[in-house]
Structures are given as C-alpha cells and as structure tokens.
C-alpha cells in the first residue's frame, strides 16, 4: 500500500509569509517609469508598474498601470472595485452607459457590482495627451471572483 503524502499547510504558509518579508526587504522600491514598456492590448495602450507577474518589487498584491488614451479605450465589463487617478488631459468614462466627465487631478471610482461594471474611457481632445493611473488591490478583486468580458476592442489593437 502506497504511503499517503503528508501535507504541511502550516509550513507552506510560514514559508510563503517569509518570502513576502524577504521580498519587502530586498525588492525594488522605485519602479522607473522610463524602464517600463508600453503595451498595446485589446483594452488600451498600457504601462504596468505593479502586476502579479512582476515579482521583483518590494510589495505584492497590487495591480498598478497607466493608460494612454489616444481616442478611446476598448469597452469591457468586470466587477469593479478600483480607483483611477487622472494624470494628464481630460475626457470621460461611460459607466453602464452613463457619461462621467473628468480632467487632470480627478479620481474615477468604479464601484463593485455583482454582474460587473461596463465601462469605456474617452479622450475629449484627441491629439492631446490623456493619461490616467489605475490602482487595484488584487486580493480584493480576486475575492470578488472577478470576471472580465471584452465587449469592444481598442482602436489601437492590431492583433486578431
């Protein structure tokens, strides 16, 4: 009869938390914007500073990215629960079909809704810079069972 493998859940969590402490002590404190690449995605042109797959920073559990809106983003739906700080320019965001105007220095809050929040972002002055920064605490959205559905692709997205 084969021996059952012993599971050490306590040791696993002990080691995981130790790895978080080590990451906090040794990870990057400053993430240089000039060293972060821009990415064209189905939703927008994005520059990620914190992401679950970026593991050499001093913190974990955050998704933080900049969006550069040339004309408008794609349109998608997810449960919400994030903050967007407008860095430059002015525009508007449609949330469940309702237009909300914003400008540099404003904070956009996407509320949590069980069936998600449909939203899209627009540059009010195409040809002029329009950028914002999204801040998401990933354990929170993970606990929501976050699902994302892309409804319309960004006009900048060239992939099929």
What does this structure look like?
Strand 6 (90-95) and strand 7 form a beta hairpin. Helix content is 15%, strand content 40%. The radius of gyration is 19 Å and the shape is globular. It is built from two helices and eleven strands, in the order H-E-E-E-E-E-E-E-E-E-E-H-E. The protein has a six-stranded antiparallel sheet. Strands 7-6-9-4-11 form a five-stranded antiparallel sheet, with no helix packed on it. The mean pLDDT is 94. By secondary structure, the protein is of the alpha+beta class.
Helices and strands, with pairings:
Elements: H1 9-26, E1 38-40, E2 45-50, E3 62-68, E4 72-78, E5 82-88, E6 90-95, E7 98-103, E8 107-110, E9 117-123, E10 131-137, H2 138-143, E11 149-152
Antiparallel strand pairs: 1-2, 2-3, 3-10, 4-9, 4-11, 5-8, 5-10, 6-7, 6-9
Number of distinct helices: 2
* Mean pLDDT over all positions: 94
Helix content: 10-25%
Find the count of extended strands (DSSP E, 2+ residues): 11
- Classification by helices and strands: alpha+beta
Shape field: globular
% residues in beta strands: 35-45%
Q: Helices and strands, in N-to-C order?
A: HEEEEEEEEEEHE
Radius of gyration: 19 Å
Strand order of the largest sheet: 1-2-3-10-5-8
User: Strand count, sense and closure of the main sheet?
Assistant: 6 strands, antiparallel
Taking pLDDT < 50 over at least 5 consecutive residues as the criterion, the unreliable ranges are none
- Give the end-to-end Cα distance, rounded to a whole number of Å: 53 Å
